[in-house]
């Protein structure tokens, strides 16, 4: 047997700039408890509990039988790019040239393409803290520097135009935003977004807006950043609104002058997005399928309208009511538990003592990592009700241990 130690492969330095998700540790612990027979309610999950509706599945099966399974154009099949453009006209009243649409393997590939195309080594990119964790990693993968700007409830957990002005330096290249946001479910007000775009434009930078949750807007009709100029890059996906996470399909809308550059990069990095998923996705835009998505959006809104007051009744505070996505960013400093205000310890306790998974804020930034937990309501209404009762029991037990701890819990009307 050869006993000579193999030399360790040296990893590229950029790997150090990418952190693992804390929630994965929690997910592993949850899986262990489930294997041991515990019933766990998953409210950490970032994907819809709904799967692709029947017309999409049927279209995929038909495409498979027709054998349309070979490479497509790097920009995507023309019919899908046209259908996406028509969707902008129908849902947002926006005329988008299909030539500007680049179909990708999910928003993830879209963000990677956008960062590869626009970020040079050491370029700084502004984004809010808290943000979707991969955003800073996409910038780091392009050897840029993600610059997290603490963004609290006063600015809806989003960047403001004033932040952009204040934080812009000669090394800043652009901003990366998400509206509605993961983890907060809050959108940037249209006027603020317009001002951000104008502020960035005046400095010669880029604005990338991830609109992956935009179909899931509950209070006001959503406004795409594309309304504020052809120079904005938007990211979107079939994962969330269209309930197709594992199909790996998304898209970008890029400035007209940049389509050639994005096509060249897409050809080289990915060849194309899944042909089968592209053909199936054509069915998403049929009126019957859109009606199914609308019913599901309303169900998400019903869940939000249940879970926000329910969390408040448990002693969490929700400083900004989420208007989209399927997340609530809840302040845990006031709950009746010894781990109140320590989201890492609290989420572990909620898993072990109440069989409920939430995500600690530390996955989303460094500004207030312990104060917040992300609650996902992408799970059945009855399971949300059950989770609330479990947490009520948990905090109730601790409140009677320590009568001085945390806010008193309130019953919800009708409970
Ligand atoms: C804000 C945001 N952007 C992008 C993604 C990645 O989505 P996709 O499945 O389209 O790659 C996610 C997934 O959770 C997300 O929350």
Q: How is this structure best described in words?
A:
This protein has 415 residues and is of the alpha/beta class. It contains twelve helices and twelve strands. The strands form three sheets. Strands 2-8-7-6-5-3-4 form a seven-stranded mixed sheet, sandwiched between helices. Helix 2 crosses helix 9 and helix 4 packs across helix 5 (133-141). The longest helix has 27 residues, at 287-313. It is globular, with a radius of gyration of 22 Å. The model has no long low-confidence stretch (mean pLDDT 94). The structure holds pyridoxal-5'-phosphate. Pyridoxal-5'-phosphate is lined by residues 46, 106-108, 132, 178, 182, 210, 212, 237, 239, 245, 250. Pyridoxal-5'-phosphate (PLP) is lined by residues 46, 106-108, 132, 178, 182, 210, 212, 237, 239, 245, 250.
Distance between the termini: 69 Å
Shape: globular
The ligands bound in this entry are: pyridoxal-5'-phosphate
Mean pLDDT, to the nearest integer, reads 94
Run of helices and strands: HEHHEHEHEHEHEEEHHHEHEEEH
Helicity range: 25-40%
Structural class, from helix and strand content? alpha/beta
Number of helices: 12
| Major sheet | 7 strands, mixed
Q: Count the strands? A: 12
Report low-confidence residues grouped into runs of 5 or more. none
Which percent band covers the strand fraction?
Answer: 5-15%
Tell me the Rg in angstroms.
Answer: 22 Å
Strand order of the largest sheet: 2-8-7-6-5-3-4
């Amino acid at each position: 047997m050869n006993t000579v130690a193999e030399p360790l492969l040296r990893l590229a330095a950029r790997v150090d700039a990418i952190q693992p998700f804390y929630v994965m540790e929690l997910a592993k612990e949850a899986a262990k408890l489930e294997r041991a027979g515990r019933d766990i309610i998953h409210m950490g999950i970032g994907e819809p509990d709904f799967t692709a509706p029947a017309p999409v599945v049927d279209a995929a099966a038909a495409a498979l039988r027709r054998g349309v399974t070979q490479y497509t154009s790097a920009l995507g099949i023309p019919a899908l790019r046209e259908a996406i453009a028509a969707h902008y006209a129908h849902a947002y009243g926006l005329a988008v040239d299909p030539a500007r649409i680049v179909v990708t393997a999910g928003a993830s590939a879209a963000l990677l393409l956008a960062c590869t195309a626009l970020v040079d080594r050491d370029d700084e990119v502004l984004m809010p803290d808290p943000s979707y964790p991969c955003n800073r990693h996409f910038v780091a993968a392009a050897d840029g520097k993600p610059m997290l700007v603490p963004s609290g409830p006063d600015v809806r957990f989003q960047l403001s135009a004033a932040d952009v002005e204040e934080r812009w330096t000669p090394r800043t290249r652009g901003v990366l935003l998400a509206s509605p946001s993961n983890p907060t479910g809050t959108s940037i007000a249209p006027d603020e977004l317009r001002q951000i775009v104008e502020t960035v434009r005046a400095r010669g930078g880029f604005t990338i807006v991830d609109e992956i949750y935009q179909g899931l807007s509950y209070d006001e009709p959503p406004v795409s950043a594309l309304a504020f100029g052809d120079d904005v890059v938007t990211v979107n996906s079939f994962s969330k609104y269209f309930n197709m996470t594992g199909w790996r399909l998304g898209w970008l809308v890029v400035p007209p002058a940049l389509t050639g550059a994005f096509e060249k990069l897409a050809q080289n990095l990915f060849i194309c997005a899944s042909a089968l998923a592209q053909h199936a996705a054509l069915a998403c835009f049929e009126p019957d399928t859109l009606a199914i998505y609308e019913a599901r959006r309303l169900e998400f809104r019903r869940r939000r309208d249940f879970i926000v007051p329910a969390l408040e009744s448990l002693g969490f505070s929700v400083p900004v009511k989420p208007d989209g996505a399927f997340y609530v960013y809840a302040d845990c400093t006031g709950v009746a538990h010894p781990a109140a205000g320590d989201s890492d310890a609290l989420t572990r306790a909620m898993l072990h003592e109440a069989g409920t998974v939430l995500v600690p804020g530390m996955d989303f930034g460094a500004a207030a990592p312990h104060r917040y937990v992300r609650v996902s309501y992408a799970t059945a209404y009855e399971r949300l009700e059950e989770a609330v009762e479990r947490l009520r029991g948990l905090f109730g037990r601790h409140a009677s241990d320590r009568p001085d701890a945390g806010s008193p819990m309130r019953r919800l009307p009708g409970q």
